[in-house]
Amino acid sequence: MEGVHAAVAMTAVVATFYSAMALEHAFRLGAGVLVLAVALSLTAARTERAASRRRRLAGLVTMPVLAVVAGGVGELLVHLPTVGKAVFTLALSGAIWLRRFGPVATRAGAWMAMPFIAVLVTPVPGPVGVWTVLWSAPIAVLAWGWVALLQTVARRLGLVDATPPPRPAPEPQRRDAPRKAGWRGLPASTRMAVQMGLSLAAAFLVGDLLFGRHWPWLVITAYVVSAGNRGRGDVLHKAALRFAGATAGTIAVTVVASFLPRHATADVVAIFVLLGIGTVLRQFTYAYWAGCVTGVLALLYSYFGETGGPELLGVRLAAIATGALLAAAAHWFVLPVRSADVLRKRLGAVLAALADLLRAVRHEPERCAEHGARFATDLALLEQVARTAELHRTLLRRRARTARAAHPADAVDALRTLAEPVRVLAAPAADGSGAAAGPHHLRLRAAVAANLTELRRALGRRPGDGHRPLPPPPPDGERPASAALRAVGTAVDRMAEVFPSVEAGAPVDTAIDTAVDTAEGRAPESKARVT
Predict the structure, then answer these.
(1) Burial of residue 266, with CB atoms counted within 10 A of its CB: 0-12 exposed, 13-18 middle, 19 or more buried
(2) Residue 502 carries which DSSP code?
């Protein structure tokens, strides 16, 4: 399915590019509109593929306005560089700060970033004037139209899912847990906005001092590493992947581009091929996407005449490494968001969905499918931070040379085993696990629910009463629903080994209440329910 989504996305990108090219030739708008068209269509294809009609219309209103604003900032970068860089930094930091106001503001912030990045990566400035800036609005509408049209056609033909996947509902905020004093009490969106601002400001300053006209490579890297921050460990991981992928992509493309003439058609073909490959492979690891996008930038600069061989290659790699280091340092030392807290919050969201499913099995069987879908969605969000935890576990075990030391990544492994049990529990009418369930099933459900409550308390670092053993299976075996319920109980027991119950009177750590949840469409400051 991802391959089909990627094909639809790239078809929209190519259609938008050639439509924008026709406008550029007719009105002499400059190369910037082509870069903007590709950037906006790529963003729309990714963020709007599961959008409702109302959300698409909101994008139609938002995109042109942001594109014009970004075009204005691009003019400032050319004519008043200091002012332009300051506005650029404030705009992208503000886009992150907006996340505190809920899903709609989060989407607006996501839309805000791409036109600014498009302005930054344009190799040559377009014609100066308000006329060119205003043309950014029609280009944005063009990108929106092609993406909306092709995704709608793909859905109607059954090539992609006809219904958007469910989005997790914001959790109710806890009012009984006081925030910590000092910077730890700051909302995560505020902390991330400050980190982004410092990363970009340092990148602009160091870029001007050390890299001259090649400063965009450093700034782009600083932004990419900082964006979508899911904790300081995640930033370090992303910085390493960014450098590894960008190094491979830059070396390969710079060497090949040195043999191609300026404005070579092969450059344009290779750009779209790389974008398509990166779109498909980014689901496996960010390094592929980083390598492909960096290769696209190298081809773009080559297309407009910037060549240089080994010397240019060295400058680009140094700029990428410096940008990654600056971003990692800002996120590690300035108002850091702990990766462990982000992981705990994502785990809490999955457990909350699981608890709601068990409750619905007994009291609201008609809502079981809804809670099962929410479990799958929250588990997918958990996977976004799981890789960093798994790498940390591997490093610790190699250093300690021990086979099995309890680690939070073990809890992720336990939850991964529940896909099939949750599917069974989400269909209670077919399995007879609702009101018609026997006494054994009811005792098992009560025990699992109690243990799940204790685990959620432990995950939130709040006192509990400890786990209780599950009742033994009946001599004649268990029905599918009871077997699925026992699998849930086993997974909860495995997680309890990682997060043991907190004794009464122990100090409460509320850092999890300020951990960030950066998933698109989820309220960033919502609190995972743990009691």
Answers:
(1) middle
(2) B
Helix axes 188-206, 309-333, angle to 10 degrees: 150
Measured in Å, how far apart are the chain's first and last C-alpha atoms?
Answer: 38
For 363, the enclosing helix (H) or strand (E) is helix 339-363
Mapping DSSP onto H, E and C, the string for 257-291 reads HCCCCCCCHHHHHHHHHHHHHHHHHCCCCHHHHHH
Distance of CA 119 to the CA centre of its chain: 22
Sign of the CA dihedral with 232 first, then 233, 238, and 240 last: positive
CB atoms within 10 A of CB 131: 11
CA angle 393/397/403 to nearest 5° reads 115
Tokens of 496: 């309890």
Fill in the DSSP letter of residue 523: -
**Would you give the distance in Å from CA 475 to the centre of its chain?**
48
CA torsion sign, 215 to 216 to 220 to 223? Answer: positive
Q: How many residues does the chain have?
A: 531
- Bridge partners (DSSP) listed for residue 502: 463
Q: Of 526, 426, 425, 525, whose CA–CA distance to 485 is shortest?
A: 425
CA-CA distance, 415 to 67, in Å (whole number)?
A: 42
Taking the C-alpha atoms of residue 423 and residue 405, their distance in angstroms, rounded to an integer, is: 31
84 Cα distance to chain centroid: 27
- Supply the pLDDT for residue 518: 33
* Average pLDDT along the chain, 531 residues, taken 10 residues at a time: 82 93 88 85 82 82 89 88 94 90 78 82 59 87 94 87 48 43 72 94 96 90 87 89 85 74 72 86 79 83 69 86 94 90 93 93 87 93 91 82 76 95 79 58 90 91 84 85 93 93 57 34 35 29
Give the CA distances from residue 477 to residues 427, 431, 453, in Å, rounded to whole numbers and listed in that order.
20, 15, 27
The residue whose two tokens read 């730890």 is 184
Rg of the chain, C-alpha, whole Å: 25
Q: How far is CA 57 from the centre of its chain?
A: 23
Output the pTM of the full model: 0.81
Angle formed by the axes of helices 408-416 and 480-498, nearest 10°: 170
Residue 273's pLDDT is 87
Partnered with residue 463 across adjacent β-strands are 502
Alpha helices in 28-80 (DSSP H): 32-47, 53-79
Sign of the alpha-carbon dihedral angle for 448, 453, 459, 461: negative
Residue 192's contacts (CB-CB under 8 Å, 6 or more residues apart) are: 96, 97, 99, 226, 229, 337, 516, 518
The burial class, CB within 10 Å (0-12 / 13-18 / 19+), for 181 is exposed
Which amino acid does the sequence have at 377? T
∠ at Cα 338 (194, 528), nearest 5°? 100
